[in-house]
Amino acid sequence: MKKLLLLRHAKTEPINQSGSDLNRALTARGASDATRIGEYIRAQGIKIDLVLTSSARRAVQTSELVADAAGLNVPVNSDRRIYEAGIRELSQLLKEVDSQHDSVLLVGHNPAIEELVKWLTDAVQAMSAGTLAVLAFKGNEWSRLDSGTCTLESIITP
């Protein structure tokens, strides 16, 4: 059975008038929370084959901190499409994942991450900053990912 981990980026600094949303960085608490999520992944022995992340600075930072704390030896793949994606775009991106990958971590933004959890599992789950949803995908090929094809195994909040 394949695993899909959906992570909302960790807590970020607010937008200021001179900065852009894409360049917002994690706060100290956000960095700490991301590290704790990675430590949880390591402690649970969750193997991750592929990391996909939004190109927003806060998502990339979250991904890198999680990967480091989890002891992952996989590249963090930044994809601009994730930044403003909705369910349709995120599910299409996931359907394109090579089925040799048994476990995928996707780091993105709300409301899309929260809506994707609901769409895939039929479970309503609040996804505050830094929250991780661990899903079991009932299929063998990511191309078959669709509404209701996953079960929610756990929710981890920092």
Architecture overview:
- The protein is an alpha/beta fold and 158 residues long.
- It has a single domain, classed as 3-Layer(aba) Sandwich (Rossmann fold), CATH 3.40.50.1240.
- The protein contains 4 helices and 6 strands.
- A 6-stranded mixed sheet has the order 3-2-4-1-5-6, sandwiched between helices.
- Strand 2, helix 2 and strand 3 form a beta-alpha-beta unit.
- Helix 1 packs parallel to helix 2.
- The chain starts with a strand and ends with a strand.
- The model has no long low-confidence stretch (mean pLDDT 95).
What proportion of the residues is helical, as a percent range? 25-40%
Q: Beta fraction of the residues?
A: 15-25%
Strand order of the largest sheet: 3-2-4-1-5-6
Q: On the 0-100 scale, what is the average pLDDT?
A: 95
CATH topology: Rossmann fold
What summary fits the major beta sheet?
6 strands, mixed
- Structural class based on helices, strands and sheet pairing: alpha/beta
Q: Could you state the CATH homologous superfamily? A: Phosphoglycerate mutase-like
Q: In whole angstroms, how far apart are the ends?
A: 26 Å
Overall geometry comes to globular
CATH class descriptor name? Alpha Beta
How big is the Rg?
Answer: 14 Å
Number of domains: 1
Summarize the structure.
The protein has helices at 28-44, 57-70, 87-95, 112-121, and strands at 2-8, 50-54, 76-79, 103-108, 132-137, 150-156. With 158 residues, the protein is an alpha/beta fold.
